[in-house]
Amino acid sequence: MSEWRRRRAMIHPRASGGFTLLEVMVALVLATVGLLGTVAVQQTIFNATANAGDAAIATRLVMRAMEEYDAKVVTAGPPVVDQVAAATTPGWLLSGYQNPLGASNATATPDFRFKREVQVTNLGPAQPYNISVQITYALDTGAPKVVRLDSQRWKTW
What we know:
The chain has 2 helices and 7 strands, in the order ααβββββββ. With 157 residues, the chain is of the alpha+beta class. The longest helix has 50 residues, at 21-70.
């Protein structure tokens, strides 16, 4: 019987340094799962970077809008000059859509994707104006995000 085993071993050698087909297939499946995980992480990082960029643009646009209201003259006079009174709104007023550079458009387009809304409230004599500006972005994703800045503008009389 040992002679038969010796002859068989010569015809079909068992001790080889290679891999079986099953081992290669398992290795390929594991490598594929690892690569898919890497692609998913890259996609998440790409989305987070784009969102952070849009948030920075929206913040810059809302700061620019608030600076426009800070530049309006409010003095006791004589004569009394109150440029903020003309900008008073009954509620949130859509003042258009903006592109990342701050140019305005009446309708939303892929370039003009930042919605700007303003609310200016006169609280009465000897009371300040409440000024609120908000920029809404990511309108196409179904989960809009808002950057809002509130300020008070005191009258000098």
